[in-house]
Amino acid sequence: MKATKALVAAGLAVMLGAGTAMAVEGPNVGKVSIGYQGMNTADEEGNWGLNGVSARYWINNTTAIEGNFFYGTDSEEDPYDTDEWSTVMGTVKVLYAPVVKANSRFYVGLQGGLGSFNFEDPDEDESDTFWMVEPLVGFEYNFPGLTEIGFNAEVGYSFYSETPDNSWTTEDNESGIAFSFGAHYYF
C-alpha cells in the first residue's frame, strides 16, 4: 500500500512538474515598449485610418496593458472651396494571451477610446466627440535574435458612437470591423 501511494505521489509530481517545465516564458515580460500603432476601420463612405504612438507593457507572461494616441488629418480641394478633417483619439487596451510561445503570443483583448472629430469648410465648422469599444483578437511576434522588437496585428469589432457638439445634428452610432497593426521596441 505504501509503495502504491509513493508511486501515485511520484506520478503526480512528475505530471505537475512536467506541466510547469513545459510552460514557455514569452519575450519581453516586465518591459515597457514604445512604438507605432495604425488603425483602419470602415465608415459609411469607405475606409479611414489613423496613425498613432503606442506604449505596451507585459505585466506577466499572459497579461498586458497598452495605451495609444492617434491623430489623422485629410483635406479635399476643389475650385470652389477646401474641406479639412482632423481626428484625435486616445485608447487603452487590456490584453490576455492564452497561447504563449518562445517568440510569439496569441491574445484576446478589449480596447476602449475617446476622441474628437473636427470638420471645416467655408460654410460650416463641425466638431464632434466620440467613444469606441472594441473586443479584439491578435498576435505579437518577435523574430529570434531580435526579441526587443515586437510586431503585432489585430482584428476586432468596433462599437462606435459619435455625439455632435452642435444642436443641429443627431447622435451617430456606427459599428464595424477594424484592423490594427504595429511595431514596438521593448526597453
What is the average of the pLDDT values? 83
Please report the distance between the alpha carbons of the first and last residues: 56 Å
Q: Poorly predicted ranges (pLDDT <50, ≥5 residues)?
A: 6-22
Number of strands: 8
Envelope shape: elongated
Query: Considering DSSP H and I runs of 4 or more, what fraction of the residues is helical?
Result: 10-25%
Estimated radius of gyration = 23 Å
Describe, in plain words, how this protein is organized in 3D.
The chain has one helix at 2-22, and strands at residues 32-43, 46-58, 63-77, 82-100, 104-120, 125-141, 149-164, 172-186. It has 187 residues and is mainly beta.
Brief digest:
It is built from 1 helix and 8 strands, in the order αββββββββ.
Task: List the main descriptive attributes of the protein structure presented here.
single chain, 187 residues, mainly beta, 1 helix
SSE layout:
Layout: H1 2-22, E1 32-43, E2 46-58, E3 63-77, E4 82-100, E5 104-120, E6 125-141, E7 149-164, E8 172-186
Antiparallel strand pairs: 1-2, 1-8, 2-3, 3-4, 4-5, 5-6, 6-7, 7-8
